Amino acid sequence: MKKIILFVILPLVVIITGGIIYLLSSAPGDMGNSDAPAFADSVTVELPKDAKAAKKALATARAALARLQQRKPYLVIDTHANKIFLRTEDSVLIEATCSTGSGGEYIDSTTGKKWIFDTPRGIFKISTKIPHPWWRKPDWAFLEEGETIPKNEGERLDPNMMGDYAMGFGDGYFVHGTIYERLLGINVTHGCVRVGSDDLEKIYNKTPIGTALYIF
Prior knowledge:
Blueprint: E1 3-8, E2 12-16, E3 19-23, E4 41-46, H1 51-68, E5 74-78, E6 83-87, E7 92-99, E8 105-107, E9 114-116, E10 122-125, E11 128-131, E12 135-136, H2 139-144, E13 157-158, E14 165-168, E15 174-176, E16 193-195, H3 197-205, E17 212-215
Parallel strand pairs: 5-17, 15-16
Antiparallel strand pairs: 1-4, 2-3, 5-6, 6-7, 7-16, 8-9, 10-17, 11-14, 12-13, 14-15
């Protein structure tokens, strides 16, 4: 029985013969290596014995792969190395240091409510772009400081904390600036992704709404 090897360019979600192979990115540290091969993994698919059926299966697999491959630049965030990349499938356009979730938690001793400060992993899209964003401080931001949660909504708003730009990717998470640039490269955030002002401006200007975002 003949076989064909499909080379899968990361990041992709490849669906073959009912199985799902979920691939996010090349190994940490490899994404900036221009000598790395253009493909990062392969999938072997058995073709039917019948030549006509095999030809049809091959055409279907090639079409599915073509639809899944990223043709436009996309963002990749490595939460272990605290690096953010704007890249294409074969080159890195921008590489920058960032800060991601600390993995810590806070429990309100009065209500028992718990917050876990992780950056979500998975596949997302940039859904909003906001210049000069204002941060609406959530309850935990006051509780951590031993402050009373305000009843006046205006007391929650902070015009400086998120820097000059913010890009939302769902559920209240953003890639944004920071006033704590000295902490870049460390897992210290409450879930958002912080980027230095110079790097963030470059990424923001080259990242339209709808850009794919891969976080691992």
